[in-house]
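step 3/5: co-fold with glutamic acid
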Amino acid sequence: MKKRVRVRFAPSPTGPLHIGGVRTALYNYLFAKQYDGDFILRIEDTDQTRFVEGAEQFIYESLKWCGIEPDESPLHGGSYAPYRQSERKPIYKEYADQLIRTGKAYYAFDTPEELETVRKNWEAQRKMFIYNQETRSMLKNSLTLTPDEVKKKLQAGLDYVIRLKIEGKDDIVFHDLIRGEVRINKLQIDDKVLLKSDGMPTYHLANVVDDYLMRISHVIRGEEWLPSTPLHICLYEAFGWENEMPAFAHLPLLLKPSGKGKLSKRDGDQLGFPVFPLSWKDPQTGEISRGYREDGFLPEAFINFLALQGWNPGTEQEIFSLEELTKIFTLDKVHKAGAKFDIKKGIWFNEQYLRKTPHEKILPLLKAELSLNSWNLEDNKLLQAFDLMKERISFHKELFTKGKFLFVAPENYDWTTIKKKLNDKSITLLTKIHDNWSVIEKWEVFTLENVFKEIIEQYNEKIGNIMPLLRNALTGESVGPNLFEISVFLGKLEVSKRIISFIETLKHNFAYKI
Ligand code: GLU
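step 4/5: write tokens
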């Protein structure tokens, strides 16, 4: 029988989830959904010293905003609960004890100071120390001490760790679904600590035990975990779980736009784009970092963009809904090399989505933004304004900056252009347009345009001279959406006010010229 596809995203809540993490979650989600499988969120919070308040909540909120909600998680529940590792402590102890009983692991009592001394001695001889099959016989552990001594130390409550006993000098070979064959010699792997005396497991033990207990079929994670995988394989073997071992796929890193180095949490501030899906307030310093949501990205655009940072379907198509992605995503098309992060492409995606997002979806976003300004507008007017501007903005909130003239009369004009276009006919023409438009009964694009054209013909003026002036009168700018459509949107009264006010300003500033 084929194994059910079950994948997990297993972040440690040691800080705000980074976009690299979101991409890992996304690829897991796409893979799971393609096979009708389960996408699990497991919180790996065994390192209490690195606990960051709010980081777990941030993960839930981020995934929710992206539309990639888990099937099972601490929040969603599931048959393999608990999904928070700090609540599974006794389980790990039980499994570590099992390895001790079967002779696959051992107690080690070396203090950190003792190990430091050994390390220094080795370094003095230009050798690198690793705690492994070649050195453990010289160290203080249950393989070198008598059973009685071990018992006494444990009873006395001395600090200890449980280490995995790696044996053999052969290679560990496995097939990574992205990188192909990976091979490493067992002598290069150290006898990793699995559990500490306070009963807290290390990442390796907890991760492998949980992947096994939660019946994970595929481990899809960041490339930084590739070096840990041989050790994990040794752990599966030590437990006798070889047949239940998941397949592994290690994703390439997200690189800085320059391609030089990994995109880090600090990069956002320096490179001028967010590295977190949502904005994050550091609980300790109060420092606020930008988020894609707050910057105005639509989640669908963000996800589409992120999916293509390190993967592509091998065709020219770039726009994919989440559902389409679940149909075509394959791990073998994930690139091996790191993906240079390209924020310009991200903005392009947002533009594409902005233009095709249905009114009912964009309206709440526009209303939220409108409420930040003191402007008032009915819903259908707001949507009309959006339609006028949507080809010219990258983010919905730019409607209120780049399209400000739709809400308030311009306070400034583009004088450089005005000076070039102004001539002795200008005021007469603008006045004529004003007067003839004022008597129009059917205030619509077609009529406004016809009246306008009649006037410029009558006065034998070039459209390229008068249009920028009229546009400045109405918008304060020299380029923008169709002027007649803007006029219809603004309404007769407002248009009249703006033209009059512009004429007054011209008269005041250029009396000598006119
Ligand atoms: N807790 C690890 C992390 O923070 C999980 C690595 C894995 O997926 O195995 O990335």
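step 5/5: annotate
The chain is about 45% helix and 10% strand.
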